[in-house]
Amino acid sequence: MANMIFDFTNLTITAANFDDIGAEKDIYSTWKVLMLTGPSALNVGSPPAFATSVGGNPIGGGQEVSPYFFCRNDLGWRVRPPSGDGELTINGNFFPFDTTIPLYESNPASNDTVLIRSVVSPQSITDASAVADLALLKQFAINKLHTDPITGKIELYSNDGLTVILEGFLFEDIAGTIPYRGQGAERRDGMVAP
To answer: In this structure, what DSSP letter does residue 170 have?
Structure first.
């Protein structure tokens, strides 16, 4: 277990050395233990370092939500690397509560060179654009397509089979110099399982 030093007066969480830090076991769990065993920390009137965390919630199919920990940087909390030059790696879904305010800061009056890496769970990040691209690719594979010999266009329809969502010109040659004139199939209906 990496040693994390919580300063409840200055609202800093400092790594004692350049070990790999586990967001859950080294930062969040250490804070929880200090809250339970160190009542003096609560007496200084400091705001909580964490107000929200999620994880372990079942989402069906035997799967659970990956744990996420949101440090209250909006209340002044900051994470500092140890003194000296090195690389600090924080493993896990550790994020600032407010993304417009820095979560990490260097030690005051130091000229240290530190690289801070955050390694998050790849299963925990949803790329909305990739999801949309995949949905469109699926529509292209199974939805209705029309080719129009008059306009030379191919049209991809939405799931309702009525609304055109994409269109483009077709050509009979690879160079794109001979417009499509109806010399082949002009329609493909939506694909269904047999």
So the answer is: -
